[in-house]
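ARCHIVE RECORD
Type: protein–small molecule complex
Small molecule: adenosine monophosphate
Source of inputs: curated submission
Record status: active
Notes field left blank by submitter.
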Amino acid sequence: MPNTYDPQNIFARILRGEIPNNTVLETEHTLAFRDIAPQAPDHVLVIPKGAYVTYDEFALNASDAEVVDFTRAVGEVCKMLGVQPGEGGAGYRMIANSGENGVQEVPHLHVHIVGGRHLGKMLG
Ligand code: AMP
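STRUCTURE (tokenized, with ligand):
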């Protein structure tokens, strides 16, 4: 059964310009902005502009253009933050909390890009 998208979720409202955000990058299909409650010095959320709830749904149903745009935006954000391990950065963690067990709070797909400090073990 497909996820039901709630058009009143906070990220949908950000995309409609109803509430402000601290934009890092905007492309045709993707928006990246700073998390309002950062868990580390670098904490950026990358979201598709389309109405997707989880990454699996996006990966299976989004157009090639959306998937490519989103994926490249993740790379660009890492570059902008200077966290790329292969380019002298100290690394980062990319997280996509999904559904109840994943403890997803906002029901619009977002990946967290978190870095700027050592993050410890993944589920520690
Ligand atoms: P998740 O638990 O993966 O759904 O994470 C939702 C994230 O959205 C949390 O890290 C919140 O701090 C963040 N968040 C909620 N409202 C806003 C907002 N208005 N602007 C930026 N980040 C937000």
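CURATOR ANNOTATION: Residues 85 and 91 are 5 Å apart (CA to CA).
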